[in-house]
């Protein structure tokens, strides 16, 4: 098996470090130098990989959302001992809240953090962010439809409506949790939502 090229490993390190830093500090709170210093890459090398900060952040959002969708999909298909899709979604939600508590709420979902401070001045990042959110909502629509077919979710709302409600509640809860430093409040909010949509 060939060894990865230095350029590939450097690019990957920039992306992973960028995701961590922007999840904590947002678009405007994270400078390129901050990321480069952690990876120990000279500034000039950055532009061998990315044409601008906007292009870099767009790549971070795309990588993060693809990984998120893949992880959720895999867990629902093959992970856990829960008997149905709804219970697996609850496990994913609680597990994620626990992970954010472990890092003392210093960072959370990249999409939630970026959404709070990105604007039209970052057109590429904004476009990729909207596309990523749409893909996430499509995934949750499919999962909630699956839960409806399993008989655990109310039928008087379309799966897309439930997915939009879940996504908006989740993103808002994450932002609120970073301020309050209170996982219990976040957990109560999300479990109440599950109670509302459950049969």
Report the average pLDDT across residues: 94
Specify Rg, calculated over alpha carbons.
Answer: 18 Å
Q: Between the first and last Cα atoms, what is the distance in angstroms? A: 51 Å
**Binned strand content:** under 5%
Report the sheet with the most strands, covering strand number, pairing sense and barrel closure: none
Helix fraction bin: over 70%
Question: Uncertain runs with pLDDT below 50, 5 residues or more?
Answer: none
Discrete helix count: 9
Tell me the number of strands.
Answer: 0
* SSE-based structural type: mainly alpha
* CA-based shape: elongated
Pattern of helices and strands: HHHHHHHHH
Keywords:
mainly alpha; 0% strand; 9 helices
Structure, briefly:
The protein is mostly helical and 199 residues long. It has helices at 6-25, 32-39, 43-49, 53-78, 85-102, 110-115, 123-150, 159-180, 183-197.
Q: Can you walk me through this structure?
A:
- It is a single chain.
- This protein is mainly alpha-helical and 199 residues long.
- Helices cover 75% and strands 0% of the residues.
- It contains nine helices and no strands.
- The longest helix has 28 residues, at 123-150.
- The chain is elongated and about 55 Å long.
- The termini are far apart.
- 27% of the residues are buried.
- The mean pLDDT is 94.
């Amino acid at each position: 098996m060939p060894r990865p090229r230095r350029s590939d490993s450097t690019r990957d390190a920039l992306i992973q470090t960028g995701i961590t830093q922007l999840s904590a500090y947002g678009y405007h709170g994270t400078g390129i130098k901050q990321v480069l210093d952690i990876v120990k890459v000279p500034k000039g090398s950055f532009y061998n990989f990315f044409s601008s900060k906007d292009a870099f952040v767009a790549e971070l959002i795309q990588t993060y959302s693809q990984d998120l969708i893949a992880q959720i999909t895999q867990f629902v298909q093959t992970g856990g001992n829960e008997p149905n899709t709804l219970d697996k979604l609850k496990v994913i939600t609680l597990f994620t809240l626990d992970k954010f508590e472990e890092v003392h709420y210093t960072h959370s979902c990249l999409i939630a953090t970026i959404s709070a401070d990105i604007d039209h001045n970052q057109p590429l990042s904004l476009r990729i962010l909207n596309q990523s959110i749409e893909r996430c909502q499509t995934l949750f629509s499919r999962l909630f439809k699956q839960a409806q077919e399993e008989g655990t979710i109310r039928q008087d709302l379309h799966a897309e409506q439930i997915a939009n409600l879940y996504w908006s509640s989740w993103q808002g809860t994450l932002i609120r949790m970073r301020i309050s430093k209170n996982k219990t409040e976040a957990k109560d909010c999300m479990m109440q939502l599950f109670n509302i949509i459950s049969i």
